[in-house]
Please model this.
Amino acid sequence: MTRIPDPAPIASPSPPRVEVIAREAPRGSAAARILAIARYLRRNPQLVLGVLLLGGLLAFSLIGRLFIEAGMAQPLVGPASLPPGAEHPLGTDPQGRDILAVMVYGSWLTLRMGFLAGLIGMAAGSALGFVAGYYGGWTDRIITWLVDVLLTVPAILFLVIISAMLSTALTSFGMAMIIALLAWRRPARQVRSQILVMRNAGYVEMARLSGASVPSIIFREIAPNLMPFLISSFIIAVAAAILAGIGLEAMGLGPQNEPTLGMTIYWIMKFSAFLLGMWWILPPVLLLIILFVALYLINAGLDELANPRLRKRG
Amino acid sequence: MNYLIGLLRHVFMLLAVIWAAATLNFFLPQLAPKNPITEKLTVLGETSGISSAQIVELTAALNERFGLDRPIWERYLDYLGDIARFDFGQSISNYPARVSDLIAQAIPWTIGLMVSTTIISFVIGTLIGAWAAWRRDSVLLQAVSSMLMVFSAIPFYLIGLVLIYVFAVRLGWFPISGGYSIFSIPAPTWEFAREVLHHSVLPALSITIASIGIWAVGMRGMMVTVQGEDYMTFARARGLTNRRMFLNYGVRNAILPQVTALALFFGQIVTGAVLVEAVFGYPGMGLLLLSSITLFDYPTIYGIVFILIVTIAVSMLAVELIYPLLDPRVRR
Model:
């Protein structure tokens, strides 16, 4: 299993169907279930690779914290612009921050920001989408219009204005909140269109006729069926939030006193690191590239899981 | 007739978006707790010996000078009038210069970079996607298209940083930053044009590499769907050439959603390009925006953001208008 998974699963010869796997092992037993999951994962290398990359990044950040103090990521812990050495494994930047420590603490800040903003955006968006799709009428028209207008506006430009106003007082938690302000739009629209389809499904009709309350219909009938879809849009929301957050930080609009990865990109430009031939540009850039690729792979893998029809296309 | 109604609806939507953007642009700073004039004068009062009574007097005078003493709705209407004439006032960091002039200088760079990279990546990406769906037995094509799709997940500017490191710092084939050499003066000569081209290779490449995949994914998916259609089976039964089936039957039908996607991706491309310009020190709107942010030059920031939003809205409208020409079914 050490071989690198084929990045083009769509090209692989048509994989066995799920039903076939289920028939091989006795149904219901825990071992059979684990076996089925393991077999499925073998056919979905994108998901596995994506989760491994993201897990690796998380582990790097969490384990790194045990060995490196937070103070190392602050300016002036070492001499400025030091090449890699025994004391600073990845060297220091022109502010005298230890690059390895910045990577460890910065990746945690980035992941936390993306997770928070994605979660809030997803929760608010799904709630609006549920309401719009389920009740219809004017409620739906107003929410849809609002989402449509706001979707045409590129989020980052508004975030630029908001964060420019708050610049000095900003923390990475505040960043997450600002990004969450606009992160609800896409989930709202997607959830709404899913609800529109499901609202008239037989089992929802049945629940309604048997007198189930609206919350009960939403949480017990509709939500479980939407789960794979909701998880997939959550990952997209997290990726979008990280994209927006790193973008803002790279413009110099991030929190000034925390070692975020995006601000490191900003310092690269600010100090003209390239002109001076500094080499510390690569670690943050590569770390971010790995993060984005991991989120992409997870999303593509989940897509395949949620839409089995995609598999046949192979 | 329906086309006309649709057109009117789109124009109305465009105006609504622009109005919403302008209004937010106006009211957001009003919500901020800080008043720029009092801030400035308080600092002045601390450093020089102006008394607080004088400060109150000065504040009132300056408020009148900038019209800040008038009711907010009056200022709002004035502001809308100014915006309609693309008048954003004067820049703070380049003081006497008007924001509209600064933007006018920067905008050709951005448009040149964006339009060329969008066209290049749209054409290449669409073709690769279509081809990858058509020739699903080609391992090379599948590998290339999957790789491009992974690249599409990476923001432009990160790819740009890697390209700078490899091709400018290590190999020295291309300049590290700038739109042209600092030693030359912009002039309409071949020499200068060649230099601009040389400087734009890496920024353009980083946008292209990252966006080809976006088009390839969409096209591949649509092409697979189209291949299952009855008219494809019929075309094959009629014995049409492979080339004709690919272009006139496959690509012709699968390309329609791509054009819609072009409208939706414009926002993404613009915001991505802003940071690419910043990374490459390319003298367009993105760099102007970045330097205005660092210098707290609010009039310039608002001006640029407004222009970018209008550009995006207009290009979306253009795509909506072109669409019926491509798809006869929508025209009716």
Summary: The mean pLDDT of chain B is 78. Residues 108-295 of chain B form a domain with the MetI-like fold fold (CATH 1.10.3720.10).
